[in-house]
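Summarise this fold before class:
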Amino acid sequence: MPPPIRRRDGPGVLLVDDDLRVTGDTATAERWLATLLPPSPDRTAVPAVVFNVAAQLLAVERGVDEHPAAARVHLAHGRWITARAARLHAADGSAPIAVTMDETTPLERLEVFTRAFGLSPRETTLVGLLAGGLDTNAVADRLGVSPLTVQDHLKSVFDRTGSRNRRSLLSRALGVGSS
């Protein structure tokens, strides 16, 4: 079994053909696969997300759908993985699909978090500005509102997300630190 994935390992890459058969991978991809779906002795572990993003790319190429060929998968302990598919064009004329798997970035996590809690566009902007390190006064200046209005929006965000303070809110939203 491959060693566990570490943040510094970077993306794993699988090559998939148009019939959705895995034709190659990197060592890091094997570790990502084992993290997503621990292998059993009688089968090779390839989680559905690999096939889903590759199939979505095919759908985009055929004009069936226009959504991006990407998906996020939640792991234990607040970790997320993002899988993406793109078409390669090799010198030999082949054109396999490359599926990458990597740790979801804090910005991508922020998007998932705000959508999951149904935050309004204004509340989403507020959380994004806080994630960027701005304090109440700087957020107020950026939004063109008073600091008291920022505090009111923040209270609403705390209520909707079940957070008690900015630190726990950002920890949960960005997947860093402890909440």
Remarks:
- The first helix runs from residue 27 to 36.
- The helical segments are 27-36, 48-61, 106-116, 121-131, 136-143, 147-161, 166-174.
